[in-house]
Write a structure and sequence with these properties.
Order of helices and strands: HHEEEEEEEEEEE
Shape: elongated
Number of helices: 2
Strand order of the largest sheet: 3-4-5-11-7-8
Largest sheet: 6 strands, antiparallel
Helix content: 10-25%
Radius of gyration: 19 Å
Structural class: alpha+beta
Length: about 190
């Protein structure tokens, strides 16, 4: 839920909590209906395994990598920027618009993103950028691209995007056509998962 609210860090913290701390007994690798932080405290745990808890966990995890928002497809909204050092690969992820594949990797002062697949959302694709990448400039398929409200948007696949710490310079356009950006952080919310 937090991913869809634009709260990447909070979503990742919750995912880590539920996978590291809240699975009891830990070796069973499942989630109960009710979770408690105190391992030895006697209390109600509900059903184990709990089907809707499991399906919510799957949906929350999928939202880290892709989710539908109206007629658009949002990609990598919950990806931790630290993961980009080793790279993130998503293969054949089904969506209501078709499947999507993408690779994201940080290389020196830029982030490279390659997106492909059969997905054809009517309103295109969006990649929300974390606050730590604010101020980067971008290009898509070799052309300068705007980052608007912290999101990199594009219409069709395949797409090759690059994010730069310095203004993007397209090989097909003069340097003055590069689009500088400001990506504001997502607003905080008091919502619960």
């Amino acid at each position: 839920m937090f991913v869809r609210l634009g709260e990447r860090d909070r979503a990742l913290a919750m995912a880590r909590y539920f996978t590291d701390v809240s699975s009891r007994p830990h070796n069973w690798n499942e989630l109960a209906e009710v979770v408690h932080a105190k391992m030895r405290a006697p209390s109600y745990i509900g059903d184990m395994p709990h089907t809707w808890v499991g399906s919510d966990y799957i949906n929350a995890t999928r939202s880290i990598f892709a989710y539908e928002k109206g007629d658009s497809l949002v990609l990598a909204a919950g990806v931790d920027p630290k993961w980009l050092i080793e790279g993130v690969v998503v293969s054949n992820l089904p969506t209501q618009f078709g499947s999507v594949d993408y690779r994201m990797m940080q290389q020196d002062d830029q982030i490279r993103i390659a997106v492909s697949g059969s997905a054809r959302p009517p309103q295109g694709f969006s990649i929300p950028l974390p606050a730590s990448l604010a101020g980067m400039s971008a290009e898509i398929n070799g052309q300068p691209a705007a980052i608007t409200n912290g999101e990199l948007k594009f219409d069709k696949l395949p797409a090759e995007a690059r994010l730069f710490t310095a203004p993007a310079v397209s090989t097909n356009a003069p340097q003055s056509e590069a689009v500088p950006t400001n990506a504001p952080a997502a607003p905080a919310s008091a919502a619960t998962p």
